[in-house]
Design a protein that fits this description.
Two copies of one chain form a homodimer. Chain A is mainly β. A six-stranded antiparallel sheet of chain A has the order 2-3-4-11-6-9, with no helix packed on it. Chain A has a four-stranded antiparallel sheet with strand order 5-10-7-8, with no helix packed on it. Chain A has one helix and eleven strands, in the order βββββββββββα. Chain A is 5% helix and 55% strand. The first copy, chain A, starts with 10 loop residues before the first strand and ends with a helix. The first copy, chain A, has one domain (18-107): Jelly Rolls, CATH 2.60.120.10. The interface between A and B is large, with 44 and 43 residues. Strand 9 of chain A pairs antiparallel with strand 1 (11-12) of chain B, so a sheet runs across the interface.
Chain lengths: 118, 118
């Protein structure tokens, strides 16, 4: 029944959603989300780094545009548009944008701190 | 500990993954996934229809390419590349491709039947 509160957020147009500047060439936009699933678009300038970090939320990421060096649990590989990566709970991960690009991060459960902070 | 079995599936390159032809102008490719989170790429020909259906899994979908008429719980809207939609548990939903395109569907929990059937 929690989802009934989200009835106005079924359709999310990128143009209608604000971007949060998280610094160092990264911007974040919250797309579709419910209590246990959240999609976030992340724009990165060329050379921008999403620093190594970890969280209990499981994450799967789609490379929508660009080319990224992706590190997960000490392994580093180059991924291009159309590729994806999966991050199990608490594994350390980070990215570096080889060129300007967009990542679509999806989390379960929802990153509540993103909703609080934009 | 379940995720430890997925250590070889951290990085998923689209070019390395087979496509499953699901008929009627739709093709499906399983991208990153773990026990409780699964990303699937769906290619649709112009005019192809993902028929109305429902499942208990929560779903969030990113429009990677193209333009789609999306129906969720009786509401129908037009979404373009960069937009997204969220489907709560058991809500009836479907899509129609206005032009050829790609949807990135993400589910929690994982759609085990996709792993069984390709």
């Amino acid at each position: 029944m929690e989802d009934s509160t989200l009835s106005d957020e079924v359709f999310i147009r990128s143009a209608d959603v604000s971007w949060t500047d998280v610094g160092a060439g990264l911007r974040r936009q919250i797309l579709g989300h419910g209590p246990d699933l959240m999609m976030v678009s992340v724009q990165l300038d060329k050379g921008a780094v999403g620093a190594l970090h970890h969280h209990p939320h499981r994450q799967v990421t789609y490379v929508a545009h660009g080319s990224f060096e992706v590190t997960v649990d000490g392994r580093c590989e180059l991924l291009n548009a159309g590729d994806s990566f999966y991050v199990a709970s608490d594994l350390t991960h980070g990215v570096r944008a080889i060129e300007a690009g967009v990542l679509i991060d999806v989390f379960t459960p929802t990153r509540a701190e993103f909703l609080a902070n934009g």
